[in-house]
Amino acid sequence: MKKLKKYLSISFLSLLIVSMIILPIETNAKTIKEFQQEVDKYTKELEDRKAKIATNEAEIAKIKQRISEIEKEIAKAEEEIAQLQKEIDESNAEIKRKSEESKSIMEYYQVSNGENVYLEYAFGAKSITDMIYRLSIVEQLTEYNNKVMKELEELIKKNEEQKKKLQEKEDELKKLKKNLEEEQSRIALDIASIKAGMPSIEEQIKAAKSQLANAKSLGCGETEDINSCIYRVSQKNKSNGGTSIPSTNGFYRPIEYGYVTQYYSGCGTYIEWKGVCSGHIGIDISSSNKSIPVYPIASGYVTATYYDPAGALVVKVKHNYNGRYIYSTYAHLRSFSVSKGQFVTHNTQLGLMGSTGNSTGPHLHMEITTCDWASDFGGCTWRNYAISSSRNPRDYVAFPASWSNR
Length: 406
Description:
The chain is of the alpha+beta class. It folds into two domains: 2-29 and 250-403, Glucose Permease (Domain IIA) (Distorted Sandwich), CATH 2.70.70; 62-195. The chain has helices at residues 2-22, 32-106, 117-123, 128-195, 201-217, 226-239, 382-389, and strands at 258-262, 270-271, 276-277, 283-286, 293-294, 300-307, 313-321, 324-336, 343-344, 351-353, 364-369, 390-391, 402-403. Strands 1, 4, 5, 6, 7, 8, 9, 10, 11, 12 and 13 form an eleven-stranded antiparallel beta sheet that branches. It has a two-stranded antiparallel sheet with strand order 2-3.
């Protein structure tokens, strides 16, 4: 146990130093005054984040409208291209027909097989008038056909050029549509990232203000550490016949048998504008029994039961660990069988393992923190909870790669 305390102290000190470098205002122990300042700052940032979501959603609406307009332009361009192709095909057919006519006429107008067929046709006339008429007909028909074919060829050339321009326009429109769709997906992903992995903005603001009000109602001094105050008040209530959480030194695994699917990495980087960590602030475990019962790691009080924004069913329990409170969180439950305020032991079934919310399969995501954002007396905001409050569950609970008992 001494080694465990020493390790926790070293780990906490290291994490605290890193947190101070990244975000100097983030500390694990806060006084009423500091918490008030953080809540005010936090509330503003959350409102800004909410405004960003609204801005992004408005931008997506504009993009959708532009995509709809582009789709209409593409459809129109395709219709024009089809019509031009039809005209080109008709012109080519007409040129072919006129060419055949000219060929027949030219049989009388050109020399073939060494004979002057034109002269033969001309001198075959019965009179000078008939000959002049024949010559005139041949020349006029030939000139007309040549003129028609030339006009058709120019029309084909013009249509081909127009078709090429329309095709280029259609390609540009399709490219623009693709870019807009990619931008729409990026913005949608940003919105999802802002919302994912954290409670709703309204919930966070409400919880932070509620905690501040509750801490003040306990009579905590402005310069007194909130967590220490909460513990002091609870012990005072105990001496006055109230309820308190028995201290625990031993911890149990939350399921009877299973295996680890993802280990704890901590909050590697806290992305401010998204309100999420790049790391994994809990441990994921599963079992061959995909609806195995889930139990608390130790005795304590249930402080919250809720669905997160992604739909994951969550239960939180507060424990008394060597004179300080720690919180265990159990997420993705299929169902739960406890209620807020209920005292539980390590043998009380919290619920069944499941795959609710953002989950790829049945498993239990479990977190251990030194404060909590969702409890009336949790002592921290969501940001502080994620950055400096989370602890590696394996520092408290023995999690081998797999196990067959608690």
